[in-house]
Design a protein that fits this description.
With 365 residues, the protein is of the alpha/beta class. The protein has twelve helices and twelve strands. α1 packs antiparallel against α4. The two termini are 39 Å apart. The structure holds zinc ion (ZN).
Length: 365
């Protein structure tokens, strides 16, 4: 059986956002972005939000990547499995399962801390999670607001993960190659101070080709699909992937600000549906929220976040873990150094299905 295109190239076109080069862009040019950030601070926040809400009505139904879930990569992976099954002339093939210990899908809770107030409020968010047996990561900006290191130490001691959210909370890191190189030492220093393994770019600005050079084990700046960010786009994948030696861990749920502020949602229905659909594809559910005022700092938003925590706490097949541990697993799975990693079955049919490993005595039910 031959396929009239390169599957590997198609995959790279999606996950590395190379499709952007061939599509009309609704994002702003470099010059427009510079102008936007130059005038932004002179525009009252209320007016900024009103303008964004009008824009949002246009943004929420992009034809590609689909929002909130784009199944392009899932379909490509299925098609790849179908080709392998056909080539082997068989109805079922074993493959290395997506997640450890018989889990059907994975969940990561992550936060970007935008301000000193946000860092103070992080403790309250950590309490809400810990009460439900959950942990999360908090990404902190190196040089943008005063950092209360007592809070950082407390979060670390309680088993939360710390990550780096840029040197400055602006687009400077990816604004030029010179700036990217110049900020590397500061990123390294902050990484060492926090004991951080991971990075998320401020406002998810990114040059995908440079992400593999970040001094981190993983990056989580690339959305699955996010038409609402200043740099819209997405990798269309519900699984992590490698950019060089850096593991890219896409966030796969709409952000808190998108859902509650821009779209004015008053329930967690969008998050719940997305959670269920990604679980059905055995993917990674990653939620990005902010502890800051205007985000989870608002009582109403915090209550909705608690509702989501309640949804995920009693799902024994969902691997609730930290980004650094999910990334360590993804490397192990890729290296296949261990002989007894869990094995799933790809089964032929109208659509190829992926069956999880059979449960055993020590796996959850
Ligand atoms: Zn941020």
């Amino acid at each position: 059986m031959t396929v009239p295109f390169s599957l590997a190239e198609a995959y790279t076109n999606y996950v590395e956002e190379r499709w952007r080069a061939t599509r009309p862009q609704r994002s702003l040019s470099e010059r427009q972005l510079a102008l936007f950030y130059g005038v932004k601070r002179f525009i009252p926040r209320r007016l900024q939000l009103a303008a964004r809400r009008r824009l949002v009505r246009l943004q929420r139904n992009p034809d590609f990547p689909r929002w909130p879930l784009d199944e392009s990569v899932s379909r490509l992976v299925q098609f790849y499995a179908k080709c392998l099954l056909a080539a082997a002339g068989t109805d079922e093939l074993p493959f290395r399962w997506f997640w450890p210990d018989g889990h059907h899908a994975a969940l990561l809770l992550t936060h970007d801390v935008e301000s000193a107030d946000g860092l103070r409020l992080a403790i309250g968010i950590a309490d809400l999670e810990e009460e439900r047996g959950l942990r999360s990561s908090f990404n902190i900006v190196a040089d943008w607001y005063p950092i209360d290191w007592g809070i950082v130490r407390e979060l670390t001691a309680r088993g939360f993960e710390l990550g780096v959210h840029g040197v400055h909370h602006d687009r400077s890191l990816f604004s030029s190659r010179a700036a990217f190189e110049q900020q590397q030492p500061a990123l390294r220093r902050m990484s060492a101070k926090l004991g951080a393994a991971g990075f998320r770019s401020p406002a998810t600005h990114r040059v995908v080709d440079w992400l593999s050079e970040l001094p981190f084990a993983y990056d989580c700046s690339v959305p699955h699909s996010d038409p609402f960010e200043p740099q819209p786009g997405g990798c269309c994948s519900v699984w992590p992937f490698f950019l060089g030696d850096v593991v890219e861990v896409p966030y796969t749920l709409p952000q808190d600000h998108t859902l509650f502020t821009l779209l004015g949602e008053r329930s967690v229905a969008v998050w719940q549906t997305q959670l269920e659909r990604i679980e059905a594809q055995h993917g990674l559910v990653q939620l990005l929220t902010h502890p800051d005022p205007g985000y989870l700092g608002e009582t109403r938003n915090r209550a909705l976040y608690c509702e989501f925590l309640e949804l995920v706490r009693d799902r024994p097949r969902l691997w609730r873990t930290l980004p650094r541990d999910a990334v360590a697993w993804w490397r192990l799975r890729d290296a296949a150094a261990e002989p007894d990693l869990p094995v799933g079955i790809a089964r032929a049919g109208d659509e190829v299905t992926f069956e999880p490993p059979a449960p055993n005595a020590d796996s959850p039910d």
